[in-house]
């Protein structure tokens, strides 16, 4: 099963932030089959609590720490050795694009 994706709004969530997270998480599950969960990054206000209660919906999961982890955002790029010209670093994915005339 793929990693779980938490869909959240802003830190002090209001009704539109909560509804957007819930709706987008649902859309991604239904349309793409993504493993999504609606979440929130802060306490519910009175209006949002009332709306959820009136509609018979549970509040999204509270995430106390939604900061990314290094392994989820890292990207490995080829690096230059100490003897390679710095100009080869301009495009790490194509290290041999420079012709001999540019060396």
Keywords:
alpha/beta, single chain, 3-stranded parallel sheet, 103 residues, 3 strands
Describe the overall structure.
The protein is an alpha/beta fold and 103 residues long. The protein has 3 helices and 3 strands. A 3-stranded parallel beta sheet has the order 1-2-3. The model is unreliable at 95-99 (pLDDT under 50).
Total number of strands: 3
Number of helices: 3
Supply the helix-strand structural class: alpha/beta
The sequence of SSEs as H and E is EHEHEH
Stretches with pLDDT under 50, minimum 5 residues: 95-99
Percentage of residues assigned to helices: 25-40%
How far apart the termini lie comes to: 49 Å
Radius of gyration: 23 Å
**What characteristic shape results from the CA principal axes?**
elongated
- Proportion in β-strands: 5-15%
Compact overview of the structure:
This protein has a domain at 1-65.
Topology:
Layout: E1 5-7, H1 15-32, E2 36-40, H2 46-55, E3 61-62, H3 70-73
Parallel strand pairs: 1-2, 2-3
């Amino acid at each position: 099963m793929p990693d779980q994706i938490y869909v959240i709004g802003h830190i002090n969530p209001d009704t539109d932030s909560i509804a957007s997270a819930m709706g987008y998480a649902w859309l991604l599950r239904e349309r793409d089959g993504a493993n999504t969960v609606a979440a929130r990054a802060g306490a519910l206000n009175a209006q949002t609590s009332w709306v959820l209660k009136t509609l018979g919906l549970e509040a999204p999961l509270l995430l106390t720490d939604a900061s990314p982890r290094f392994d989820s955002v890292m990207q490995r790029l080829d690096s230059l050795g100490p003897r390679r010209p710095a100009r080869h670093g301009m495009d790490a994915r194509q290290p041999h694009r420079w012709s001999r005339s540019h060396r």
